[in-house]
Amino acid sequence: MNRRILAGIEEIKRKKWKIVFLIAYWFIVCLEWIIGIEKITQLNVSVYNGIFQLLMLELLIIGTMLILIRWGGNNRECKKVEKVLEESKFIDKKGNPPLVLRKEKEMYGYKFCFYSEQIPLAEFEKQKAMLEVLLNIKIISIELGYSVRDVIIKGIPRGGELNKVLTWEDTMIDEREFVLRLGRGYFEEMEWNIAEIPHCLLGGGSGSGKTILLKGMLRQAIIKGAKVIVGDFKGGVDYSASEWKEGAVIITEEEVFLEKLEEIVKIMRKRQENLRRMEVSKIEDYNEKTDAKMKRIIICIDEFTQILNKKDKERKILHSKIENCLIYLTAQGRCVGIHAILCTQRPDCEVLDGKIKANLGLRICGRADAILSDIIIDSKEAAELISQKDVGFFVTNFSSNRLFKAYYFEDKKMGETNATNKIE
Fold first, then answer.
1. Distances 38 to 24, 52, 133, 381 between C-alpha atoms, Å
2. CB 74: neighbour CB atoms within 10 A?
3. HSE-up (13 A, CA, CB side) for residue 243
4. First-last CA distance in the chain
5. How far apart are alpha carbons 333 and 226 in whole angstroms?
6. Is 324 left (phi over 0), alpha (psi -120 to 50) or beta?
7. Which of 77, 190, 207, 259 is most buried when burial is the number of CB atoms within 10 A of its CB?
8. pLDDT tens digit sequence for 16-30
9. CB of 106 closer than 8 Å to CB of 187
10. pTM for the whole thing?
11. How far apart are CA 321 and CA 327, in angstroms?
12. Rounded distance between C-alpha atoms, residue 8 and residue 23, angstroms
């Protein structure tokens, strides 16, 4: 009961408007209290006065507790879940199921808050498959809540709104300086703040929607004034439209791509000198202090395994030079506004150098097998959470609400972009 009261208080903190109900209850009780005292005073019977005041005080305290207990899960819906758990023998040594403190809908998903003094987090994780059936959801995460006795389960319904296509419109672009919108999660909007997490590793099996997500990210970067360089090593088909060639630098030859990387390395060194001269440590501060605005540079490699393949003896020297440039740029590019997005659909843990991968803070994986999922996000969650029929769904490494549906971007929107390819 004490935990339900605490849960009720937490509910008020989350939904402050609920305090109105408590205030209304207190007002009514206090009003009755005052009226009652006046009537007892008129009767001139002092013994009743003390009894009446004690009863009203109990009414005030007990009523408040009952309201908090109800908000803390003592309602029909939470009790129904508890009964289902009890009937399925998900119980502690005393035969009690975990208390359901809260069940609520958050955007497109569901959140369950449990409390048990004897059932640990590990047992919830062990019984994940059974809990999915009992709660009628696909579980996205199981984690600790308020204390080690509190467990929060987040899950998604079968089907639902996110199975529909989420078409990207330029009016949806984020107004913040360099935040790119990725899609909609079941519990929150998914976004990438490039200033905080400068580089990205993006993977997914063939037909997972990876290229569509990537194009949407690049489109937003171009609108925000970034200089975009795309190394397209999947035959040059995905970016063959003239609109892409007008909005970005598209490179399909490895030698030309190396030349461009070496050019960007020189630009990075020059920018570092400019920052030192202005006594600032990042591009945002430099742009505030000067009129000569630095533009961010986005380097995208679509199918990086093609140009970082150490097994190709004939092109080993070329690939090593490309790799060294990427190591240098991903390690030092953040403060001067140089960012990298590396993409692949081929699982090979030997291709990506550990020094590069360590700097790719944002990891996103679409529909994939367990091997590719483990390479991209260091877990098998993409294989577990995304079915083979799901297109456009992705899992990230940086949010507890990892699963999201990406916005669908159409190439024809690139025709609305007027950008220069000159990098300064």
1. 21, 11, 59, 67
2. 20
3. 13
4. 65
5. 14
6. alpha
7. 190
8. 888 898 899 999 989
9. yes
10. 0.76
11. 10
12. 15
